[in-house]
Each structure stands twice: as structure tokens, then as C-alpha cells.
Amino acid sequence: MEFGRTPLNIGGTFYDCIETRRLFDAASGTVHLNDRERPHVHTCGVCQGVFYMFVCQQSEDPGTPWEAPAC
């Protein structure tokens, strides 16, 4: 296992997912995903969903009520 990745067990299926904190940092623009992480985000529904949630949170205006994004 390499830094920034953690095994995840969901319903008996194991995923070699990117750590949640790393996805958050990438969504906020403080780090860039490496050459192995970028394709993983595109193919792993778990990581993609978490990353999408963080990206949408980063773009929210804290003064307005939350609405589902159109993307």
C-alpha cells in the first residue's frame, strides 16, 4: 500500500481507495492527485462520489441555502 491510499471494505468488496483527506485537499486545490490517483478517481465510484461531494462543497457560497448542483 502506498501513501495516500487505504483499503476499504464495502459489503465484502475491497477497494484500494484514495484517503478521504487527500480527496478533500485535491478538491480544495491544495494538492494535486498523482499519476496513479487521477485514473482511479475516474474509475472508482466510491472515490468519484466523495471527490464530487467535496468539489461541490468548495464551490458553495456559505451565505446561501444549499441546492443540488445542476452538474
Description:
There is one protein chain. With 71 residues, the chain is of the alpha+beta class. The protein has one domain. 42% of the residues lie in helices and 17% in strands. The chain is built from three helices and two strands, in the order E-E-H-H-H. The longest helix has 14 residues, at 45-58. The relative contact order is 0.16.
What are its keywords?
alpha+beta, 71 residues, two-stranded antiparallel sheet, globular
Name the strands of the widest sheet in spatial order.
1-2
Strand content: 15-25%
Number of helices: 3
Count of DSSP E strands?
2
Q: Roughly how many Å apart are the termini?
A: 33 Å
Q: From the alpha carbons, calculate the radius of gyration and give it in angstroms.
A: 13 Å
In short:
The protein is an alpha+beta fold and about 70 residues long. The protein has helices at about 20-30, 35-45, 45-60; strands spanning about 5-10, 15-20. Helix 1 (about 20-30) packs across helix 3 (about 45-60) and helix 2 crosses helix 3 (about 45-60).
Please render the helix and strand layout as text.
Blueprint: E1 5-10, E2 13-18, H1 20-28, H2 37-43, H3 45-58
Helix pairs in contact: 1-3, 2-3
